[in-house]
Give the backbone structure.
Amino acid sequence: MRPRPPTYTKFRDVQAEIERTGSAIFRDAEGVESLIIRYPYSIQYIHSYAEDSPFFLGLAEGKLRGSRCRRPKCRFVYATPRSHCMVCGAPTEWFDLPTEGRVHSWTTCHFGSEAFLSETPYNLAMVEFDGVGSLLLVRLKDAVESDCYVGMPVRAVFDPNPKYSITDVWFVPRR
Ligand SMILES: [Zn+2]
């Protein structure tokens, strides 16, 4: 026999109980009860970045790489990897983005996936760069929600221990 886990109507109380004991019951607004447990789950992926590889190799070298249309009459500039131009369809070439930009928009996330739980709440920002036609979605650290504003000058920071992941870069306010 195992005693029935305690019942909660707020999910944050369920989360706290799961942290303490590994199981809890959540009762929803209609009175339906769900048993919720902690369940370890792990997968090792073997993943190819393929033609996006220079972007991730660049992060590990402290470089932000964007892509630029090769067609002379277009030359549209992207803040992200893109093998072909979204405007005209021509192939692109890599170039180094500036490491300083401005906040175009942002949101503060009060929920996060497992990788970001330790830093939740955290900011996600769309960063704009001079001379670049699209935006880069990145985390914005060292700023609370009330610090952030549209047009805020920001600069890139690169993880000194890169993992070839988009989390190898984040931005902070330029002061
Ligand atoms: Zn183009």
